[in-house]
From TrEMBL:
GO MF term (any one): metal ion binding
Keywords noted in UniProt: Hydrolase, Metal-binding
Protein name, UniProt field: Fumarylacetoacetate (FAA) hydrolase family protein
UniProt xrefs under Gene3D superfamilies: Fumarylacetoacetase-like, C-terminal domain
Fumarylacetoacetase-like C-terminal domain mapped to chain residues: 28-232
Length: 232
């Protein structure tokens, strides 16, 4: 028996729809500016290739179906933004995965939010510094349960939307991704050896905006379990 100097943290996991199983999380990869209109609203032309950043696995906030999950407002910001995203759950790892084989590595899909401390991100961008603190904070990655891939064959042309206090903020189609799910997996696997348990937040459509304490968010993707949160 290993004698740890303190009790290890429990395994971070996400429930799988229709089963009693949990998906153990390894890493969280995120794709930046993967919808052209969102790239434009962030000041880019919309023609630049998407890029990658990461969040810690324990930034996940699990959102059970049919419940409103509390989302703590983070410190050091006065401009917290929502970004609804299709999340890809990797079931089979690999390196240098070809595009035409990439979807074979997918276990399932979920609705996620890439919460962002936008004021910190903007300041760090101007200074040319990394903006991990703007993305990788506690409670910065809400997620719903994972639906197995075979149950959502239409996921690559699905509606994606988010509302705040029942007012529509974001809407689009997953078919509008600049880099498709398969292309994203191929690109990521050229930089890292993907592992079972990896999650990929694939990017957000246009319409990102600020939320404040008390706001209620509902995020959904056609065919997946929607998530409901309240900023506290």
């Amino acid at each position: 028996m290993t004698n740890y100097v303190f009790t290890p943290a429990p395994v971070i996991s996400v429930p799988v729809v229709g089963t009693g199983s949990q998906f153990p999380v390894h890493r969280i990869y995120c794709v930046g500016q993967n919808y052209a209109e969102h790239a434009q609203e962030m000041g880019s032309s919309g023609r630049e290739p998407p890029f990658f950043f990461m969040k810690p696995a324990d930034a996940l906030v699990l959102c059970p179906p049919g419940q409103t999950t509390p989302l703590p407002y983070p410190s050091l910001t006065s401009n917290l933004h929502h970004e609804v995203e299709l999340v890809v759950a990797i079931g089979t790892g690999g390196k240098n995965i070809p595009v035409d084989q990439a979807l074979q590595h997918v276990f399932g899909y979920a609705v996620g939010l890439d919460m962002t401390r936008r004021d910190l991100q903007a300041a760090l961008k101007k200074q040319g510094r990394p903006w991990c603190i703007a993305k990788g904070f506690d409670h910065g990655a809400p997620i719903g349960p994972i639906t197995p891939a075979q149950a959502v064959p239409g996921i690559h042309a699905a509606k994606i939307d988010l509302s705040v206090n029942r007012s529509a903020r974001q809407h689009g189609q997953t078919s509008q991704l600049i880099c498709s799910v398969a292309e994203t997996i191929a690109q990521l696997s050229a930089a890292w050896e993907l592992q079972p348990g990896d999650l990929i937040f694939t990017g957000t459509p246009a319409g990102v905006g600020a939320v404040v304490r008390g706001d209620r968010l509902q995020a959904g993707i056609e065919g997946l379990t929607a998530i409901n949160l309240q900023v506290v």
